[in-house]
């Protein structure tokens, strides 16, 4: 049997966004090994037929000793398994998994899911990160990009010159995220679904939630996600005042989308392609998001949602007010248009076929 190794940094991301390609590979009689930190979704991957290997990693840390240990562990695992192809996702698996593949002359398919803040602006750290990508991905068979901005940067910097391919993010399973009936309008409810951190636009969202609820009492704002930065006290205080409802980490966002009318994602984090927006749109919800690569591609401004300026609470508030001015049927139609767009352009089957084609090429 042919062997595939997948290097990932989180069990939930692997299961939620990669399970369809994993299932296809298993159905085609590949042995699939998933290397990632253990968590609750690992058992689901095992039930699918995956071989799971526990390898903790610090997703956001910059400790060179820990990163060297990660490289050594990847090298040992890949050498021991002897895979026909290694697929990697996110920065550290791409870099250190890519280096291990290069040293072992193993075919490699990295996925640029976003480059992070360190690559966003010109700095010494940007030079280091680009150098690491250039060295680690030099022999990669095909680099998968989730947005044009990242692809253009790699082309400009001559990183990974063998083959580069643009795919529609992780795609979205439009059967799993099927249309959810648009709710009635006793209250107009908005939701923020993301890791709670400054760069995801949580400050702008909370500021606008306070402003809009004061001006429009028949509105309600939800926050879903775990706090990656210190926002617990602020969220608790705003919840006590009735400004927001904080749900913490939600295992199935479809439950919250059932009662909400619009998803707001005011991020200025360097996204690959926003899964939050894809899932919301697939469920028939209008979306309001920033004019950022990985977000703007999903929105046709004024048709299925609105695009706002980054770091701009005033513009965000104006777009929310514009949304509130629409009739119930107009809002519902925006949601239907959102679903139509992602079905046509971002269905996960497109991503699955792209990966399978590249694997077969190898």
UniProtKB/TrEMBL annotation:
Residues 184-339 form the Glycosyl transferase family domain. Pfam families: Glyco_trans_4_2 (PF13477), Glycos_transf_1 (PF00534). Residues 4-147 form the Glycosyltransferase subfamily 4-like N-terminal domain. This is Glycosyltransferase family 4 protein. Signal peptide: none annotated.
């Amino acid at each position: 049997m042919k062997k595939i190794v997948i290097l990932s940094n989180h069990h939930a991301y692997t299961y939620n966004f990669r399970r369809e390609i994993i299932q296809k590979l298993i159905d085609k009689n590949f042995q699939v090994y998933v290397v990632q930190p253990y968590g609750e979704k690992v058992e689901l991957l095992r039930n699918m037929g995956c071989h799971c290997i526990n390898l903790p990693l610090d997703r956001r840390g910059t400790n060179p000793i820990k990163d060297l240990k990660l490289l050594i562990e990847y090298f040992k695992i890949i050498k021991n398994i002897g895979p026909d192809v290694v697929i990697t996702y996110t920065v550290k698996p791409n870099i250190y998994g890519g280096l291990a593949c290069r040293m072992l002359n193993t075919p490699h398919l990295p996925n640029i899911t976003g480059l992070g803040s360190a690559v966003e602006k010109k700095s010494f750290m940007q030079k280091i990160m680009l150098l690491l990508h250039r060295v680690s991905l030099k022999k990669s068979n095909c680099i998968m990009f989730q947005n044009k901005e990242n692809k253009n940067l790699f082309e400009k910097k001559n990183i990974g010159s063998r083959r580069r391919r643009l795919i529609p993010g992780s795609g979205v399973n439009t059967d799993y995220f099927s249309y959810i009936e648009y709710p009635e309008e006793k209250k107009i409810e908005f939701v923020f679904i993301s890791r709670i951190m400054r760069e995801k636009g949580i400050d702008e969202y909370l500021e606008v939630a306070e402003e809009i609820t004061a001006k429009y009492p028949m509105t309600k704002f939800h926050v879903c996600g775990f706090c990656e930065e210190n926002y617990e006290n602020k969220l608790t205080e705003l919840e006590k005042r009735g400004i927001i409802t904080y749900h913490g980490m939600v295992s199935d966002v479809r439950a919250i989308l059932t009662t909400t009318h619009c998803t707001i994602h005011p991020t200025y984090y360097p996204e690959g392609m926003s899964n939050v927006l894809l899932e919301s749109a697939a469920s028939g919800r209008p979306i309001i998001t920033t004019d950022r690569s990985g977000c703007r591609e999903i929105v046709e401004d004024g048709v299925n949602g609105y695009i706002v300026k980054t770091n701009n609470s005033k513009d965000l508030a104006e777009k929310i007010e514009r949304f509130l001015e629409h009739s119930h049927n107009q809002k519902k139609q925006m949601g239907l248009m959102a679903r139509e767009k992602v079905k046509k352009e971002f269905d996960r089957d497109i991503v699955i076929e792209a990966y399978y084609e590249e694997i077969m090429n190898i």
